[in-house]
Specification:
By secondary structure, the chain is of the alpha/beta class. The chain has one domain: Aldolase class I (TIM Barrel), CATH 3.20.20.70. The chain is 34% helix and 18% strand. The chain is built from 8 helices and 8 strands, in the order βαβαβαβαββαβαβαα. An 8-stranded parallel sheet has the order 1-8-7-6-5-4-3-2. Helix 3 packs parallel to helix 4. The chain starts with 6 loop residues before the first strand and ends in a 5-residue tail after the last helix. It binds 5-O-phosphono-D-xylulose and cobalt (II) ion. The site of 5-O-phosphono-D-xylulose has 22 residues, from strand 2, strand 8 and helix 7. Its cofactor is Mn(2+); Zn(2+); a divalent metal cation; Co(2+). InterPro entries: Aldolase_TIM (IPR013785), Ribul_P_3_epim (IPR026019), Ribul_P_3_epim-like (IPR000056), RibuloseP-bd_barrel (IPR011060). Catalyzes the reversible epimerization of D-ribulose 5-phosphate to D-xylulose 5-phosphate.
């Protein structure tokens, strides 16, 4: 069996939208394409919708990780499943019926995750942890790329990894916001195994190399909890 490696999910929020095809090609070695769907209500910003997800599906074979930052995702999750999302994550702060959404995602053959904002405690996961494939922990308040990593996230990552361990749950923990070469090893050592990186990847002169570098720098951190 090959050793586990950190999965890297570049966020196209920081891509060059006028050259999105070129940027998707540059990250063809990534593990996921992270697509930040924002509705201007749940977040102060308005970004991508279903058509962007469809366009990414046509342009790339990398699995699509759709991060829904929308009010009432219950109403719109099916659009993203139809558009080709491979992983869909919804905020617990926004979902009316999170278990129902997770079931809908699974019924469509996709993977399901729930997201916590920095201000939402890990215990909010108590009744849904067993039902999801991934927990996404925001390490910035959602809305924009290029923000600074909130340090308290490190403790929350460890808490969620412990919760999963105690329950014997095989869980992906993804961390989103302000992750870069400077902190990726610490983030992973705390218990994460998927990292989102927007500005770190697309702000670099060589996005393909940056994906590989983040994976390389983060992977040693897996040993801390993934024995
Ligand atoms: O969901 C979000 C922001 O709300 C993120 O996915 C950002 O796009 C991450 O950008 P960086 O902090 O890595 O620049
Ligand atoms: Co995101």
């Amino acid at each position: 069996m090959s050793a586990p490696v950190v999965r890297v999910a570049p966020s196209i929020l920081s891509a060059d939208l006028l050259n999105l095809g070129r940027d998707l090609e540059a990250i063809s070695g990534a593990d996921f394409i992270h697509i930040d769907v924002m509705d201007g209500h749940f977040t102060p910003n308005l970004t991508f919708g279903v058509d962007t997800v469809k366009a990414c599906k046509r342009a790339s074979t990398v699995p699509l990780d759709v991060h829904m930052m929308v009010t009432n995702p219950d109403e719109s999750v099916s659009w993203y499943l139809d558009a080709g999302a491979d992983m869909v994550t919804v905020h617990l702060e926004a979902a009316r019926h999170p278990h129902r959404i997770v079931s809908e995602i699974h019924a469509a053959g996709a993977q399901a995750g729930v997201v916590l904002n920095p201000g939402t405690p890990a215990c909010a996961l108590d009744s849904i942890l067993e039902d999801v494939d991934m927990v996404l922990l925001m390490s910035v308040d959602p809305g924009f790329g290029g923000q600074s990593f909130i340090e308290g996230t490190i403790r929350k990552i460890s808490q969620v990894r412990s919760m999963a361990r105690e329950r014997g749950k095989d869980l992906l923990i993804e961390v989103d916001g302000g992750v870069s070469a400077a902190n990726v090893e610490r983030v992973v050592a705390a218990g994460a195994d998927v990292i989102v990186a927007g500005s770190a990847v697309f702000g670099s002169a060589d996005p393909a190399r940056e994906v590989a570098r983040l994976r390389e720098l983060g992977t040693p951190g897996l040993a801390a909890w993934n024995a």
